[in-house]
Amino acid sequence: MDRTGTNLPAVGEYNQTVVLDAIRRRPEGITRSELAALTALSGMTVTKVCRRLLDAGLVDEHGRRTSGPGKPAAVVKLNPSGGFAVGVHIDPAAVTYVLVDLSGTVRDHSRTGTPTAGDPSAVINEMADAIEALIAGSAVDRSRILGIGIASPGPVNVEDGVLLNPPMMPNWHRVALRRSLAEATGLPVLLEKDATAAVVAELWFAGPDSSRDFAFMYYGTGLGTGLSVSGEVIRGISSNAGDGGHITVDPDGPMCTCGRRGCVGYITVPRALVERAVLDGVLSAAEAGNFEDTVDVDAAFSRLAALAAAGNPAATAILTDAARSLARAIVVIVNLLDIDEVIFGGPFWARISPVILGALPDAVRSDPALVPPHPIRFAQSAIPVDVAAVGAATLVLDNTFSPRPSALLLAAE
């Protein structure tokens, strides 16, 4: 969805982000007159903004285009090397680091084991070293690094930049990550929930005609939900919105850690599916390994997914039941927000997506509790590497370059 600007003199910075956002969403390039028509800004304002963007190295001119009478007009395109951001995704199983350019392209990435040191300072030092190695290995101009974005399991305190108590990460209790990592790297740092970061990424990469109302089902070590309504990320008063994992989908199901039965985030995550595979005789105890070990669960989950992909009836039944459980939770979310699209992604998603998407859409559409009359689309995130890590990086880009109407309020102060 394209924004329109304003010709009031007090909002030049907002207009600049409007123009840059319009340029980056058109990789084929756009002329100044086309920008003026698209953003509702005057030709003079667009010309001044483009001059500033050119001087800052954020855009380039690429040839000329004839679109009517008069001389051909210069075509303006985004300069991908005009800015870079580092994205970090913290997961109980691993930490993923990505370096993303202004176009959203992943220039480099790395992955390490999740630090287990009890001392938070050791954790910070290990992450800072990994970030510096990523930047150095990519050979990009460090002065062009705009900042670091961190995506973490919730709950988080975004305002203070503190990881409160991420599940399955006992050594990360109340870690003041934002401030400490900023001090260690000398770069600005932003913190976000992983599922919310995934939504930021989807909106950053979305085309002009993409849906702006969707839920992102983040399937990792745990299950998270990110939300977009009218193109705005829904964060909630404490930036912890979207925890759909405790939606009850089976009142007679297993007891969740929260004390309720049948929570979708308890019965559909990789560990739960591996446990059921052992109970059903699909996997042996030796194949499953230690349920408390994220590496063992990862390997066993891959075995289960491979069996289902090969047509094993018992393995397929486990994933089909998981799809039905997810469908019940999705119906609740769709009814609540009246959205028309559900996007799936996360580090464990691709392995089970063929079976899940084979059963889930019909389960949603045929659910008698479904209220909205409009069609609901189901899609997979096309973002490479790690959607939460890329989302963390685009969080920095979005914070720097996306137009925010709330910024106009500053003119009234």
TrEMBL record:
It holds the Pfam family MarR_2. InterPro entries: ATPase_NBD, HTH_MarR-typ, ROK, WH-like_DNA-bd_sf, WH_DNA-bd_sf. One of its GO terms (molecular function) is kinase activity. Residues 15-61 form the HTH marR-type domain. Coiled coil: none annotated. Gene3D superfamilies: 3.30.420.40, Winged helix-like DNA-binding domain superfamily/Winged helix DNA-binding domain (1.10.10.10). Keywords: Kinase, Transferase. Belongs to the ROK (NagC/XylR) family. This is NBD/HSP70 family sugar kinase. It comes from Streptosporangium lutulentum.
